[in-house]
Amino acid sequence: MRLEKFISLFILIAIGVGSTTATTTLNYKDALSKSLVFFEAQRSGKLPHIPNLSWRASSGLNHGSQENVDLTGGYYDAGDNVKFGLPMAFTTTMLAWSVIEFGKKMGHDLHNARDAVKWGSDYLLKASCHLPNALYVQVGNPNDDHKCWMRAEDVKTPPPVYKVTPSNPGSDVAGETAAALAAASIVFRGIDPQYSKKLVNAAVKAFTFADKYRGNYSDSLSSAVCPFYCSYSGFQDELLWAAAWLHKATKNPTYLNYAKSLGCNADSDTFSWDNKYPGARVLLTKEYLLEKNQRASEFRDHAERFMCSVLPGSPSMSVKYTLGGLLYKMTGSNLQYVTTSTFLMLVYSKYLLVSKQTFKCGDMSVDHHLLRQVAKKQVDYILGVNPKGMSYMVGYSSNFPRRIHHRDSSIPSTNILSGALSCDAGFQYLHSSGPNPNVLTGAVVGGPDENDNFADDRENYAQSEPATYINAPLVGTLAYMAASVQH
């Protein structure tokens, strides 16, 4: 073994990232199935019959009615009753990417994964059907919503809707919408060509709108989106991300030219609903590594600098790891950064394996084995191989969060408590010390703090609130891990 590789492996083991408890057996297939159930529970609109989710019912059937537009469907982003367009579109993109990269490894879960993508893409088609005049980007005022603790089924008054327009632009949310529609078009290309074509045509319109009318949507919509989902990173990353997905969906070199024209000066150690730079560069690097497109070679350095920024033992690592071995980036909903980073590690591991490539972080050699090893440690931590012995996926194993920050999960269902609750009446359930009456199967919560401590406390939303964008990248990761175990 070369000295540098031995040193890097020693560092990984020393901080708990190189190995797992030998006696621990994790059922990644079961976790994958459960992670997809979560998306069924987050649906808004007219719900089909869902086994084991009888506590959820149709909601939001009047969304958009005050502007005579149909905005039914889509997803509630987390534990509230608002449909935020930016994280919903990112969720859809990541679900689609999960299917594109790892769908062949999903087995019987592939159908449910496609359904999860389509529930998002159907809504985004509705939201974008008035382009180039308007793109609808949000249903519900979060400031008003957060003053209430209600089941989604009890919200009867049509909530306000928000849109970006040529005079009040939102390149970030429009760019992410374009990316989601383009990625979804690839998912359905072989099974529903007509729907796929509809998606890619809508993606082109959304991208054109994003590029032509430039601006941050949080500048246009102010308090309706901030501080909840402000565009902190600006909109250049979404334009790059959208161009990358449109290039992949259409093979039109114009989009690669566009991506190259944006430049690649900004590096980031964070891939999230807000910052798409690392994801876009990994996606574009595939063009170079697997498809031998030399014109995409410039994205490889940036993609690998991201990997080096999150790999333990790397001299350029800029994130932290807890003593228990968890990647730790931020206090609020830290597991979102774990699931996105882990997904990119496994995708890049796949690219390296197929292309027979390696790279270096300083003197540390990195190959596909190392990326997979680090990613596996993060997944295992989420599923229970951690100092608390707790699965941070609800319903997985016998030890999981019971008091999650989620309205419908925390309030008895309409089957038990049939009368509609008022805005204030539900707070008794928020403040209750008892477990949630409805198990939100598959939901991954925000996760433990930097000391590996977790408060199973409904009011600690930073740790106990689930979100669609935490789960979405984990779908692909779990599919990969489940298939690896089988083989």
Automatic annotation (TrEMBL):
Domain Glycoside hydrolase family intervals: 28-478
Enzyme Commission number, as recorded: 3.2.1.4
Top EC category: hydrolase
Signal keyword on record: yes
Record carries keyword Hydrolase: yes
Signal peptide limits: 1-22
Record key words, sorted: Carbohydrate metabolism, Cellulose degradation, Glycosidase, Hydrolase, Polysaccharide degradation, Signal
A GO term, aspect molecular function: cellulase activity
Annotated active site: 405, 456, 465
Reaction equation(s) it catalyzes: Endohydrolysis of (1->4)-beta-D-glucosidic linkages in cellulose, lichenin and cereal beta-D-glucans
Biological processes per GO annotation: cellulose catabolic process
Protein family according to the UniProt entry: Belongs to the glycosyl hydrolase 9 (cellulase E) family.
Official protein name in the record: Endoglucanase
Taxonomic source organism: Rhynchospora breviuscula
